[in-house]
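Students often ask why we bother encoding 3D structure as a string. The short answer is that it lets us treat folding as translation between two languages. Here is a chain of 308 residues written in the first language.
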Amino acid sequence: MLGPVILAASRSDKMRRFISAAPGTKQVVDRFIAGESVDDVVPVIEDAAAKGLEVTLDVVGEDITTPEQAAAARDAYLELVGRLEELGLGVRAEMSVKLSMFGQALENGHELALANVRPVVEAAAAIGTTVTLDAEDHTTLDSMFAIHEELRKDFPQTGCVIQSYLFRTEADARRLAASGSRVRLVKGAYKEPASVAYQSKPEIDKAYVRVLRTLMRGEGYPMIGSHDPRLIAIGQELGRQAGRKLDEYEFQMLYGIRSEEHVRLAAEGHRMRVYTAYGTDWYGYFMRRLAEKPANLLFFGRSVLTKG
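And here it is in the second language, the structure alphabet:
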């Protein structure tokens, strides 16, 4: 399977330099990354709003090694909130954050990440939007869930992400559904060992459906993060079975992937949110997008071979 190989490459400095220098890289990166700055992403938000879509914004960057870098990541999100407020786009755009960017892996990282993310969540609430905490590898999740629970005491709309390939996720879903939380369900995009995660696509998909059924029957707000037509149809059916209205759950897909499906779902009356990443430190995010779907890797390969 290519996925684990690509995920391993995402941690290689040598591969980072090679990919960054490849002639076709920019064409493919531009497919998945909306730009490098807030100014670049504003037209994307406005275009999505015109199509009846909403967005969740991710300032990409994962190699945080100092508290100063973590503070800079916090400030980048605060800048984003300020621009959304100026443009009146807060109701169309929420934010997704990786706690690793806020210093979670540093010394006293749990407390540092909480201290850095709290002002972002507070600023988002002040303009009528919210923040979702992205899931990372399994070793970070206890900290992420604890920070999520702490933030929800003052900002109950703060969301979090769970990953169907992890064995623990069904129990996490039951707890979050009972607490009335906003939860984005994805399959998972990190290389995880067989001791903690399903390894085959059929097992991951079956777990996805079991977890989604739990979320739909619960008290929270499910966010279905998938491009898989079968899982989208299953999500719609589970929503009907649970008696949910179309605005009581939503679909989420990545910027640059199945864009016509974004518009179709919105036209049917579904809430459809586009996960939109931007920033200069794009490499880790980009490599996970390649790992998730072989077609993305083929697209990249063709681009490299036809440029130069």
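Translate back mentally: Residues 299-308 have pLDDT under 50 and may be disordered. Keep this in mind for the problem set.
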